[in-house]
Each structure stands twice: as C-alpha cells, then as structure tokens.
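Side project, low priority. Logging it here so it doesn't get lost.
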Amino acid sequence: MIGKYVCVFTASGDLEASSLISFLESMEIPALKSQESAGLALGFNIGQLGTVDILVPVAFADRALDVLTRMEDGEYAADDDKESGTDKE
C-alpha cells in the first residue's frame, strides 16, 4: 500500500488492533497497524507502549471513521445480542 495514511483509532494492544483491522478489511477498507517497536518486542498491551494505531489511507478515513462509530453504537452486533439487550465486548 502506497500513499499517505491517517490514524482512525488507537487500540489497546495487538489483539484489539488485529480484530479491528480484520473488521475494516471485511468492509473493504484497507488498514494496517503501527505500534512502538519496544512495546511490540516486549509484548505490552497496556500503557503507552501497548497502544496500537490503526491506520487507513487518507481516501478511506471518513468511511473508516463512520464504520467504527457505527460499530461502537452496536449497529453491527449479532442479532441475538440485540434481542437480548446485551452487547458482547
């Protein structure tokens, strides 16, 4: 991927970042992650060294932010989660 990227979300650790990247890619939004190399090497998932930035090409930034906002609002929750009134996190 060539071009300029912008951070659309800062995740707490690699697991959350990888999940969000997979979700964005399923929506046909290219994404990658960026983490401080010391945090990555030491396996931190909390604190400053544990944060992982989710980056998307500038052209996809608005769409990615919209999708992430809808996700946080529960729009993409499984139907059984919506019916029971509980959201899995």
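Brief comment: The mean pLDDT is 82.
Revisit when time allows.
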